[in-house]
Amino acid sequence: MNGLHLMPPVASSVAPRLDALFWFAVALCAVVALGVFATIVFLAVRYRRGSNASRAGGSGRTLTIELSWTFVSFALFIALFLWSLFLFTELHTPPRDAQTIYIVAKQWMWKTQHPGGQREINTLHVPLGKPMRLIMTSQDVIHSFYVPAFRVKQDVLPGRYTQLWFTATRAGTFPLFCTQYCGLDHAQMIGSVVVMAPADYAHWLRRQGTPSTLAQTGAALFRSRGCSGCHGTNAAVHAPELHGLFGRAVHLSDGSTVIADERYLRDSIMLPNLQIVAGFAPIMPSFAGQLDEDEVLALVAYLKSLATPEQDLGASP
Amino acid sequence: MSAIDTAALPAPNFLARDDSLIAWLTTRDHKRIAILYTLGITFFFFLGGAAATLVRLNLIEPTGTLLSAATYNKSFTFHGVVMVWFFLLPSIPVTLGNFLLPLMIGARDLAFPRINLASWYLYMLGGLFTIAALLAGGVDTGWTFYTPFSTMFANSNVYLVVIGVFVAGFSTIFTGLNFIVTTHTMRMPGLTWFRLPLFVWAMYTVSLVMVLATPVLAMTLALIGLERGAGVGIFDPALGGDPLLFQHLFWFYSHPAVYIMILPAMGVISEIVACFARRRVFGYTFMTYSMLGIGAVGFLVWGHHMFVSGQSLYAGIIFSLLSFCVAVPSAIKVFNWTATLHKGDISFDAPMLYALGFIGLFMFGGMTGLILAAPALDVPLHDTYFVIAHFHYVMVGGSVMAYLGGIHYWWPKITGRLYSEGWARFAAILMFFGFNLTFFPQYMLGYLGMPRRYHSYLPEYQLLNILSSAGASILAVAYLLPIAYLLWSLRYGARAGDNPWNARGLEWQTSSPPPLENFTRRPTVREAYAYDETAP
After folding, report:
1. Taking CB atoms and an 8 Å limit, are B324 and A81 in contact across chains?
2. Is 0.80 surpassed by the pTM of this model?
3. CATH number for the domain including A148?
4. 334-373 in B: which are within 8 Å (CB) of A?
5. Which residues of B368-382 are buried (b: 16+ CB within 10 A; e: fewer)?
6. Which of A92, A311, B259, B377 falls 20 to 30 Å from B106 in CA-CA distance?
7. How many CB pairs under 8 A join A and B?
């Protein structure tokens, strides 16, 4: 037993501001609760049976009282809502210069893939002070990626990508939990996030010694799985051009437009008939069940590497 | 359905008539069915409590050595399923509601007595399926049945539990239907809508929610069975389904279900506070509208369970705003109960202690709900013990306190006996402190980051877990005490008389226990809370 802890570590850029809102909300609750409690005690003592406090006259202005505490409550709630809205939007909007790391969750482990090809199990090394964006997916059931010290959490779903971002502000090792119940060893699906000074991080990345970057692995898959047969530069088939695709607006055959982000790339590989590019026939076969999530991520990383620099949204290093 | 004016002799009460087992099991008397239900939900309360005991015992050690991970997962699942569907959801409506609704509106019975009995059988049948699942080895999906875990990955007895909850759902729908029709058609002449006790309003509102929400649960559970059994791709992306679709359907039911659990409690508290403060409920009309408002807006806030699920930013924002809106009527109710005490003539009998405990715990649970309704704060707190503490404050601190308060308040009416007031006050106070010791540390655990549904945990969370388990043992004693002194009162308690609290509702104008036909003399209809007037 390690004694009483009252605060989780504060180790991300957003954590102090979330804490400020949290304690504001707690203080608000405390003031209201103590107010109601004190009123109940006061009234209960003053008007206890047998006391000689006067009961004459009723409260005549019932409606005024009702309306006033209705609107005061509502105004306080809206203040809380707006403050939270501001932070929630920020939590959903990674900075443009965030570095991307890929996470694949499965019963009961976290697999990390760095763009340089480095892989980790149940740990995640990140540099101090750099915004990091995680693209996450699950191979089986729903999991949830939660680092209490960073105050961030995002469910990790099978069949689609979700993202989360943070900027670590304190070096050290912090617990990582799965918070979406995922079966027998849910409580063992824990790991750690290691925050290192940027120089140490660069050194760590080099020491991992990988044969190829994630994008290079993807390029090899692009050829071996036959993607290049249609999408290659010399292909005879009429297929969309993939150079410079990532981050661009894509016009679809139904008249709508989507931005080609990681989720779009994944869906186009696994569910190619979902969003047909305008001017092309829906002839691409689905790769669902043929590629595992690690391979899809490598392909996505390769397609991203084909983007021209000014179109690059989630710049890989 | 007017009562008979001519009966000169006191009619035998509903308990004293034919008391063979067959007579009880085939009764159409709403009062006897309420007793049958009380036996049922008490049994399930202690069954669910036993599962909670295992959970709390296991969490004393960070390594969770008492139970295996599999047994632990089955324990919290069983606790959740039993407490939600076989205790909390039915609790107040099927017992107190069943007993009191006809009495409070001066009717002889509910509109459909046979359907009422059928609902009890459906409830028990659903419960049997759930117990069968336990005997067959249990189920480990969590009470929320999240997909694709529940459909494609869990190896436990998912079908039996899903069938159990599905069947019990029809019991809920029947009860709701019965209450709605009864309230519309069987009120005594002169008993207009805005003269109804708030308890009747609560039963009416909750019935609307039951009838509208429960079918969605039934459909969702049927879809789970379809995917699990026939491999139809609905929720599992590997089959072409969408895992979030399940969460939308489930919470579209389960958030209104939260109000199914709390609205009846609000009705009970309104009756008790008015009686023991001897005041008309402050802002009666506002109270009725706020209940209807909670019932309606409660259908539009389900997405606040899904702020980190992967739903869009804009969906999160809208659901957050609506959640803050639904909190306004709840806040109004707390303020109005407090204002009811003003210029009252307050006594602190056991039901009032439960009611005051309810107000405190419900307010605290509600306000921490506001913290969770702010999506930026829900991000770190979601699926941690903070959420566990929040909903136990509302469901256990709120609904269970109100249920027990109501049982104590109407016990003399139901049984004709008085329980030991001293023991009852002691149990109420013990429960309040035991409850806070159990669940307040869980708020702190959640803020520190301890995830829910963890069989083992990091050592730094141990002290707070020990405090929580210690509180749970006090709470267990406090829940067992009423069983003892209430049973004792059945045999040895003093005769209660017809109206021991000098209360004003119509149910107090008949004898205790009431006769089969409820009233032998036509009761006098007055305003629900005519405490300023002298008793008849």
Report:
1. yes
2. yes
3. 2.60.40.420
4. 334-336, 338-339, 341-348, 356, 359-360, 363-364, 367-368, 370-371, 373
5. bbbbbbbbbbbbbbb
6. B259
7. 250
